[in-house]
Write a structure and sequence with these properties.
Number of strands of chain B: 2
Mean pLDDT of chain A: 90
Helix content of chain A: over 70%
Radius of gyration of chain B: 24 Å
CATH superfamily of chain B: MetI-like
CATH class of the largest domain in chain A: Mainly Alpha
Mean pLDDT of chain B: 89
Order of helices and strands of chain A: HHHHHHHHHHHHHHH
Structural class of chain B: mainly alpha
Radius of gyration of chain A: 23 Å
Number of helices of chain B: 12
CATH class of chain B: Mainly Alpha
Number of domains of chain B: 1
Strand content of chain B: under 5%
Number of domains of chain A: 2
Number of strands of chain A: 0
CATH topology of chain B: MetI-like fold
Shape of chain B: globular
Strand content of chain A: under 5%
CATH architecture of the largest domain in chain A: Orthogonal Bundle
Low-confidence stretches of chain A: none
Shape of chain A: globular
Largest interface: A-B, 92 and 99 residues
Oligomer: heterodimer
CATH superfamily of the largest domain in chain A: MetI-like
Structural class of chain A: mainly alpha
């Protein structure tokens, strides 16, 4: 019995050591962002005085509020577009029997494996011809057109767990398909909607490449783009950069602790990190 | 028959957002991209057909192309096993029912919610050779840390280290779920035969989770081939082109040089490579899926 106990202590010890590997960077980054400028380039871990000067200086370094507004706007519209359209399309593939359904679903799956670089250049040309460069439209409009193969897949998987008898009962009661989608399936599918919404939020909030391609106008930039530019300067000011990173991470971390379950569901079902 | 038709109309109606999106931003761009790859095209003038010249130049004259391919292969081949084995070990560790294990799972997972540009900026500072946390820690143990992102020999390992930190916890949860699905009585059978932890892992855990393992192996490879933001933000492809990854090179060709034809040829070569990998996956996974379906359920 006591041998078993000792083994448990050993395991917890190993776990704690690994936890340091994952956690220490966060602590250190937070401390850097609170250090006085003179102490950033020193080996001492703990600042002599905690202060928020770097956060204030960040406001001079980049149009923070403008970028925040742009990021929030783009992210909000994207989440709305993806949740709406992927749930509609997921309903088509999960709840209705129709000719061509399986055939088209193969294409949905196939596009998951498509490297986005293949379509990137022609799509850029389309948006350029439409005169949409330096607007938010290239970032938001496509979100209303299906919402991405993975999200459709996730919605479909979830909708398929709704009993067919429930759908048929609603149909017999004279409910239209649109009515069933809205009044029967969506209320049941809240966990799936939340998972898709969270993944879309994460993806859009962090997205760097799309704004980089389409938003070259300073006033149109997003936080992710602004952070990347700030880091690309010749003599990066690390304390300010860490303050910017902390601010950008904050909503993600708050959301994580509020909706841990959906985060984990989303991550275990998707390869979305890349 | 009428009912079927009605369903079909509804089906297409509900699927129509995706159908429009697929035609406009999927199928059409794929075809046009191939056309561009046979052209000289700078976006300002109409594409000029030049046959296979872009491909010939890429394969036979462009040494940057091979640098990019080598960097990307190195990154993929080193990172993939590290992430898979690392997160599998983590998953096995946190599958033990000890006190506080849930807290540790959460802690390991947290870096997974940080990605892209934030992750890159954080690690530029963590890897700062003189004042960064990584080298400070190494020095605490009496080790002299390398110059990381400034040294062409260490720049790729630096980015790999970062991605192991940020991916490990997420993959761990995937593998943990798979490990927890293994029926307990199989372990008991091995124990009755006098097998230790290695026998349990080798003969029960590993066969059971191999489909999941294999699937994520493929995801990991496809994901690694696409590495872009890290290099764009952290190193701009340097030092000495040691982090000039495939997609960074493609981006530079397309949006710095506006050589869209050449960039499209690059994209198509990547497309073909990803296609081959996916095909292999389907062929091999057919065996795996059958296997797990036969034993598991």
């Amino acid at each position: 019995m006591s041998g078993r106990r000792h083994q448990d202590y050993l395991i917890v010890g190993v776990m704690a050591a690994i936890a340091l590997f994952f956690l220490l960077p966060f602590v250190w980054i937070l401390l850097t962002s609170l250090k006085p400028e003179a102490e950033v380039f020193s080996r001492s871990l703990w600042p002599s005085a905690l202060q928020f000067d770097n956060y204030a200086r960040l406001l001079d370094k980049m149009p923070f509020w403008q970028y925040l507004r742009n990021s929030v706007l783009i992210t909000a519209i994207s989440v709305l577009g993806v949740v709406l359209s992927s749930s509609l399309v997921g309903y088509a593939f999960g709840c209705i029997e129709w000719r061509g359904r399986n055939f088209l679903f193969y294409f949905v799956i196939a596009t998951m494996m498509l490297p986005m670089q293949v379509t990137m250049i022609p799509i850029f040309v389309i948006f350029k011809e439409l005169g949409w460069l330096n607007t938010f439209k290239p970032l938001t409009v496509p979100m209303f057109l299906g919402g991405g193969a993975f999200n459709i897949f996730l919605m479909r998987q979830f909708f398929m767990t709704v009993p067919a008898s429930l759908l048929d009962a609603a149909r017999i009661d004279g409910c239209s398909e649109l009515g069933i989608w809205w009044r029967v399936v969506l209320p049941l599918a809240r966990p799936a909607l939340a998972t898709v919404a969270i993944l879309t939020f994460m993806f859009t909030w962090n997205d760097f490449l799309t704004p980089l391609i389409y938003l070259s106008d300073q006033a149109k930039g997003t936080l992710a783009l602004g952070l990347g530019q700030l880091a690309g300067q010749q003599q990066p000011e690390w304390a300010v950069l860490m303050a910017a990173s902390v601010l950008m991470m904050l909503p993600v971390i708050v959301l994580f602790f509020l909706f841990q379950k959906y985060f984990i569901q989303g991550f275990t079902m998707s390869g979305i990190k890349e | 028959m009428r009912a079927l038709n009605k369903n079909t109309v509804w089906g297409y109606l509900f699927a129509s957002p995706w159908i429009v999106g697929f035609l406009l931003f999927g199928l059409y761009p794929i075809l046009v991209s191939f056309w561009y790859s046979l052209c000289q095209y700078d976006v300002l003038r109409i594409p000029q057909y030049i046959g296979l010249r872009n491909y010939r130049e890429l394969l036979f004259e462009d040494h940057y192309f091979y640098t990019a391919v080598w960097n990307t292969l190195f990154y993929t081949l080193v990172r993939t096993p590290l992430v898979i084995v690392g997160s599998l070990l983590l998953a096995m560790l946190v599958s033990k029912a000890v006190r506080g294990v849930r807290l540790f799972r959460t802690i390991y997972f947290i870096p997974s919610i940080i990605s892209g540009v934030i992750l890159s900026v954080l690690w530029m500072w963590l890897l700062n050779p003189e004042y960064g946390l990584v080298n400070s820690t190494l020095q605490f143990f009496g080790l002299q840390g390398p110059l990381w992102l400034i040294d062409p020999r260490w720049s790729k390992p630096a980015i790999i280290l970062m991605s192991v930190w940020s991916l490990g916890g997420g993959r761990m949860l995937v593998f943990l779920a798979a490990i927890q699905n293994v029926p307990k009585h199989f372990y008991e059978a091995v124990e009755m035969d006098g097998g230790g932890w290695w026998a349990r892992f080798r003969h029960v855990t590993l066969p059971f989770i191999s489909p999941v393992l294999f699937l994520w192996f493929i995801f990991e490879i496809i994901g690694s081939l696409q590495v872009f933001v890290e290099a764009y933000v952290m190193t701009k492809g340097g030092p000495l082109n040691s982090t000039l990854f495939y997609n960074l090179y493609l981006y530079n060709k397309a949006f710095d040089d506006f050589d869209m034809g050449y960039a499209s040829a690059l994209a198509w070569l990547l497309f073909i490579l990803a296609g081959i990998i996916t095909l292999i996956q389907f062929r091999v996974s057919r065996k795996w899926v059958y296997y797990s379906g036969g034993v598991g359920k």
